[in-house]
Amino acid sequence: MMERIQVGLGDRAYEIVIGPGARALAADLTGRRNFLVTDSRVAELWGSWAAKEIPQAGSFVFPAGERHKTPETVVSICRRAAELRFDRKARFVALGGGVVGDMTGFAAAIYMRGAGFVQIPTTLLAMVDSSVGGKTGVDIPEGKNLIGAFHQPEQVLIDPDFLATLPPGELRCGLAEILKTGVIFDEALFAELERDPDSLTVAPDYARFVPLIRRSCELKAQVVAADEREAGIRALLNYGHTFGHAVELLSDFSIGHGEGVAVGMCCAGELAARLGLWTRKEAERQKRAIAALGLPVALPRHCTVPAMLEAMRRDKKNRDGAIALVLPRRIGAAEVNRDVADAEIGAALEAVHA
């Protein structure tokens, strides 16, 4: 049974459709010329299905991987659209994970000053995070997602049947984002991930993922409707990300986004405990939950304190040179803090090193 969640943004409101078979709704994308964008990995798995089931007037496939999430790839997407003579009424269709969705959305935002797009996420991480909310963008050597735009999709089709093709590491990365949402907004969601973690990772019971995806999307839809451009409550969704993005950058993206966020949550949890914002017991509870899902809980040795601080200073959420950190107050609540001294951050980082 399909579930529908509304993202309330006035005349730009859209639906998130969740459920087995949701991808079949792509066949209803008619009335406009569709431009399918995907990566080489997804094309190998789902290209034949997409060719048959998604009405399309052209497509673009780029090499898979975060290393290709660049301005150059976005320009290539736009040039292919121009070659195919798509006008601004064209609909870009993103089929893939977060890299595909972010770049397709950004290309749609800038192509002829704005075309529509639809998200069909194929990874758990994209289903619960990047496909909803309209954040689009690319990486540059100086930092992650430093070039981008807010550009909301017209529709998001989330089909858990895609999950069966994911390697275990990809599932774990998505679970990190769900756990993050639980820490900042919903203790019940956090507790659900603590229950029988092996059924989510070792021997996945895909039926368990549907309510987790639904709740994550419900919470994100509420936040986006209240604060589309991250002027307030939406900033809390960056929990673990300031640390995590630095870890990704310093590893040259050999560490996945979800893994970076998991370590980043441990860093934030350690710092919050040192500052007395939450208890050591809560920090340890978070760490146990992360480890039980098979996610890393320690900073790699190459992520030295000076390198981490330098990378964190490049984060786009910073203001006037102050590092913006989302720190937990308890499981289910968090706050943004811009007043933490580098020495305090450094001490927390040292404590989380492998």
Write up this protein.
Residues 60-172 form the 3-dehydroquinate synthase N-terminal domain. InterPro entries: Dehydroquinate_synthase, DHQ_synth_AroB, DHQ_synth_fam, DHQS/DOIS_N, DHQS_C. Belongs to the sugar phosphate cyclases superfamily. Dehydroquinate synthase family. Pathway: Metabolic intermediate biosynthesis; chorismate biosynthesis; chorismate from D-erythrose 4-phosphate and phosphoenolpyruvate: step 2/7. This protein has 354 residues and is of the alpha/beta class. The strands form three sheets. A seven-stranded mixed beta sheet has the order 1-2-9-6-5-3-4. A two-stranded antiparallel sheet has the order 7-8. It is globular. The mean pLDDT is 96. 44% of the residues lie in helices and 18% in strands. The longest helix has 19 residues, at 257-275. It has two domains: 3-165, 3-Layer(aba) Sandwich (Rossmann fold), CATH 3.40.50; 168-352, Dehydroquinate synthase-like - alpha domain (Dehydroquinate synthase-like, alpha domain, Up-down Bundle), CATH 1.20.1090.10.
